[in-house]
């Protein structure tokens, strides 16, 4: 029997700790991220993204065209957070902190196309809502600077068209259906996972 050389180079591939890797070649062995773990990850992502909401409120306090100035930063940050980070690290910070990784259905790293498709429904609803509010608040509000904060919020809401309420309703409906689909299938795939061909796996 041949003796093992303790000075020989390792035979296992050396991979950076943050590099998405093939977790398993056998989908039957996967451990999927459960409903409540994913809810917790989402709430954590909301907490991390809270500064964007504070930015919008700050702009609302300053100008009646807050949505116009908020649109580009919102889109850029959202694409970075929910597409680039998913592609680069296999998940948003919320998912990675809670011990989950997004992969393709065979366990391979998520592709750029899949990351885009996965976020596409949220991006579409977000962008349409922003465009509607930009259009609705394009005309300046008289004496906006002299109003208190509550009056400013009321003034902006008065200009919000019915279409924005419809989009809000569609967003709620999307989340409800997504939650039902996620809870109902054994692989814990949400609607956006089905669209993108992804799964969410537990890593710890």
- Count every helix, treating DSSP H or I runs of 4 or more residues as helices: 8
Helical content class: 55-70%
Strand portion: under 5%
Structural shape:
elongated
> Major sheet: size, sense and barrel closure?
2 strands, antiparallel
List segments where confidence is low: pLDDT < 50 over at least 5 consecutive residues: 9-22
3D architecture notes:
The longest helix has 25 residues, at 112-136. Residues 9-22 have low confidence and may be disordered. The protein is 59% helix and 5% strand. It is mainly alpha-helical. It has one domain. The chain has helices at residues 35-48, 50-62, 66-89, 93-97, 112-136, 149-158, 162-184, 191-196; strands spanning 100-104, 198-202.
Topology:
Layout: H1 35-48, H2 50-62, H3 66-89, H4 93-97, E1 100-104, H5 112-136, H6 149-158, H7 162-184, H8 191-196, E2 198-202
Antiparallel strand pairs: 1-2
Helix pairs in contact: 2-3, 3-5, 5-7
Outline:
This protein is 59% helix and 5% strand.
Features:
8 helices; mainly alpha; 204 residues; two-stranded antiparallel ribbon; elongated; single chain
């Amino acid at each position: 029997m041949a003796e093992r050389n303790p000075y020989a180079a390792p035979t296992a591939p050396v991979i950076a700790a943050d590099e998405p890797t093939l977790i398993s070649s056998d989908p039957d062995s996967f451990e999927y991220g459960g409903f409540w773990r994913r809810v917790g990850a989402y709430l954590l992502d909301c907490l991390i993204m809270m500064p964007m909401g504070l930015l919008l409120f700050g702009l609302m306090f300053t100008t009646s065209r807050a949505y116009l100035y908020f649109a580009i930063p919102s889109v850029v940050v959202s694409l970075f957070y929910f597409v680039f980070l998913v592609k680069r690290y296999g998940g948003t910070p919320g998912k990675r902190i809670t011990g989950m990784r997004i992969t393709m259905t065979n366990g391979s790293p998520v592709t750029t196309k899949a990351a885009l498709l996965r976020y596409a429904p949220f991006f579409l609803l977000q962008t349409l809502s922003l465009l509607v509010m930009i259009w609705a608040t394009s005309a300046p509000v008289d004496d906006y600077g002299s109003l208190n904060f509550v009056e400013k919020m009321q003034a902006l809401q008065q200009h919000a068209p019915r279409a924005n309420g419809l989009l809000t309703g569609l967003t709620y409906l999307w989340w409800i259906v997504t939650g039902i689909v996620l809870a109902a299938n054994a692989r814990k795939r949400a609607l956006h996972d089905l669209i993108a061909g992804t799964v969410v796996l537990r890593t710890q």
